[in-house]
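Hello Y.,

Per our agreement to keep a running log of every chain we model this quarter, I'm adding this entry. I've kept the format consistent with earlier entries: sequence first, then predicted structure.
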Amino acid sequence: MTVKLNNRAFGHAKSLIRDGKYVIDDRDAWSEHQPSTRQENEFIQRCGYAAYAKWHLGIDDEQGEETKGRYKFPYGDFEKVHRCGLLAAESRAGRQKYYDIELAVAHLHGMLDTLTKTT
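Predicted structure for the entry above:
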């Protein structure tokens, strides 16, 4: 499996954070906050795979473009970035040695930390 950083998703996440579209939630809340399979399928049906891809920081080049398996490391709920999603992605990327994704997520996490310390 060849997973690389999805630069479009990284840019999308930075824009969302700059626009105040984020949730500062507990580290372990991702299992409750991540979109369900039903929500994912409805989002894809409504918006398509290109929009779905923007919510995932990793892309598996070995999977087809219009498959959910291509997109890895989700970070939000299709409306807002979730701190718990970023922390989960950062941890998994580090364990799996996807350092470009780990660094990108650390950057996003740092943006949230900076914004929440100044507000």
